[in-house]
Structure formats: C-alpha cells, structure tokens
Amino acid sequence: MQDVSLIAAAGYFGAHTKVPSIWFYGDNDQLFPVATWRGMYERYTKAGGHAELVAYGAFMTDSHQMLSFPEGLPIWARGSMAS
Prior knowledge:
This protein is an alpha+beta fold. The chain has 3 helices and 2 strands. Strands 1-2 form a two-stranded parallel sheet. Helix 2 links the parallel strand 1 (21-25) and strand 2. Helix 1 (2-16) packs parallel to helix 2. The longest helix is centred in the first third of the chain and has 15 residues, at 2-16. It is globular, with a radius of gyration of 13 Å.
C-alpha cells in the first residue's frame, strides 16, 4: 500500500514542480524496491516533472546510503555533471 501512495504522490509533485531534478537510484536499495522507484519516476515525468534518472546499479550493501559514504561521491559527481 505504501508503494502505491508513493507513486501517486510522485505524480502529484511532478505536476506541480517547475524546478528540474535529478534522481539517483541503485539496484540494491534496501528502502525502495526497483518497481517503486521506477513507478515514481515514470509517474513524476509523465505528470510533467522534469527529471533525469541516474540508475547506477548496486552500491556497497545498500544503494540508499550512496551519499553517506565517500565512495558515493564519484557517482553523484558524474550524475550531477551530466545534467
């Protein structure tokens, strides 16, 4: 049920946000399953939100923690420079 709400909320925000965004997601995210973040991104962009997705595969033991470790900095830098 939580995933459905998150996906619906992403659509709402996509329709109401005017600032471009960048989304980072990894395959081994321990908080959001792949289907959830893909659904959120799809709903956000189909609703008019401007976003770039950086899907970077697995990161250590939990890709949700990518920005918590210095090893994540190169991923963030590559993704943010591409925008």
